[in-house]
Amino acid sequence: ESGLGSILLTVVACLLPWLLPLRLAVVWLVVSQLSMLPVFVFALKFPLLVSVMLSLLYAGFSGFVFITSLVGRQQNQAREEQRRLNAELRATRALLAESVRVNERTRISRELHDLLGHHLTALSLNLEVATHLVDGKAQEHVTQAHTLAKLLLSDVREAVSQIRDSDAIDMAATLLPLADNVPGLYIDMRLPAPFFVNDPERAHVLLRCTQEIITNVVRHAQATTLDLHYRWQDEGVRLQASDNGRGADDLQAGNGLRGMRERLAAYGGTVEIDTRIGYGFRLNVYLPVGQADEQAARALRLSAAESAQAAA
After folding, report:
1. Would you report the helix, strand and coil content of the chain in percent, each value rounded to 5?
2. How confident is the model at residue 284 (pLDDT cuts 50, 70, 90)?
């Protein structure tokens, strides 16, 4: 008689969109409101017309509360999706910036080698010939000029080598933004140091695979944590991904997973998926890049440079 039951049903109607799938929530709402009519008629002994009117009144109010809560949930999901897409956009922008930097350094090194290097080589040869054609005081100056030209040519070659040495995409700067601001998901991303990939196309494949893994976990896995472990293996990059989600016994590969397989296969890569109910998802991705030895050498050079700076 106090109407507490109807109030509680209204509160439940507010919570249903957040707790249940939409169809099940609608069924629950309809059944709960229909159950009010027998209560009014038989338990509270209200006249039939009054009972119908009260039931419709409570059903209308509960429906309004349900729709308002549903709209709020959809807006919240849209904001979360926007934050995730912004993270992907930042990662893509970082990859684009790295690609532009690499292309510019490659262009500069090529220009230095082809133009300045060529002219310095010609100058050195001419000065060497001149040393045999002059004598006395002039020969001494020509010899000094020849020596300076060879030193300058050596410096140019060293500069070109250093530019090309750093002519790689920093995958840490590209991938780390993906782990930021993912709603409801903690991402533990472990990267080798340093982590550079020479080929922009392969770097793009690795970025897209990571994006697809994170998107699938957010949309389907119902997980709270995701581990992404990258490491160098043989002549490529190994990515091991695992989450604490619900898993699945019968995995149906969607467009995202098929696209990932196709991207990897185009460069000789593979992806293996292991999942079952209560176990979560485990993905094992391998992408050949053909530069494991380069990475080891780069790591040694970086370590030596850091040691030299510390000693200084």
Report:
1. 70, 15, 20
2. very high
